[in-house]
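Appendix B, record 7
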Amino acid sequence: MAKEDYPKIAQGLTRAGKFFIKALQDELEEQEHIASRTLYNSFKIDINEFFGSLFLDIVSDVSYMNLVNEGDTNGVVVTEEVIKGWAVQKGITFSNPKDEARFAEAVVAQLSQEYYTEGGKLVAPRRYNFIGYAFARAEGSGIISAIEDDIYKSIEAEIGTVFSDKVIQLTIA
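Structure tokens (predicted):
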């Protein structure tokens, strides 16, 4: 079952993918992980065929996605210049260069010990697991059932009675 052979099913999966991308972006905003919007804008829909089944994946090519999602108790290596640039993106201002340098130095020291910083946790207490929270919110809204029903209807319309004696299983996980 290639996606080109079943465009209505692929369209249904694409609609589902757009919903999940929006849920991920909403959660990143909730957790205030959007300084550069690089991760926020990185999500893509990938529909693949594997052993006769179509699979929907939401993918990102941002290397630090898992760090944002899970944190790191071993700390991360970052320079003071990177922190200063991040502060500008976040809209953090300083009354003088000395205060900016102290802030960058303190954040670099904290991040070398553990990501997330205590200051970050104060800004957004739910500072990790954006993927889990986004999917839990989607699951709780009932949208997954609605998407599954929509795709089932697309499958029935697309293949009709051709495969009526075969079992078709749809799982969104």
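Remarks on this record: The chain has a mean pLDDT of 84. The chain has two domains: 1-71+125-173, 72-115.
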